[in-house]
Amino acid sequence: RRGEMAKSTQLIDNEVFQAYATYTAIVLLKMMLMSLVTAYFRITRKAFVNPEDTASFGKGESAKKYLRTDPDVERVRRGHLNDLENIVPFVGIGLLYALSGPELSTALLHFRIFTGARILHTFAYLIPLPQPGRGLSWAVGYSVTFSMAYKVLKTAWLL
């Protein structure tokens, strides 16, 4: 069935789609966890951006000192933003790719490499690991998404 578009009634039984759903769920959950990590860093560093968030630390002028930026919080936020910039395209392009009829082994390779690269990227951001670790993990994930996009275009437009 390689090269054939999957029918919607067959998706739940399609191994490529199952793999896509699995790895997409993993990276989306990882991205959602970044919100919790941001909240953790905000609370432990007492660095908030909204006045109502400082209410438990005092009122009026005493609470204003907690309205500030913190380098650790900003680092986590940049990692989360990078997830949004890379995981969202993966979700869309990955779905089209899964529907384009790739070989299971090739699809698994794409999905696993992307997922591993995004997890490594997060650790590289949060620890932080020295460059080029973070940059390479970003580039690997980005390349996987481009590879899937190329396959979709090749299948759909017969490039």
UniProtKB/TrEMBL annotation:
It is a multi-pass membrane protein. It catalyses: RX + glutathione = an S-substituted glutathione + a halide anion + H(+). The keyword Membrane applies. InterPro entries: MAPEG-like_dom_sf, Membr-assoc_MAPEG, MGST1-like. It is found in: Endoplasmic reticulum membrane; Mitochondrion outer membrane. The keyword Protease does not apply. It holds the Pfam family MAPEG. Its EC number is 2.5.1.18. This is Microsomal glutathione S-transferase 1. It comes from Tichodroma muraria. The lineage of its organism: Eukaryota, Metazoa, Chordata, Craniata, Vertebrata. The gene is Mgst1.
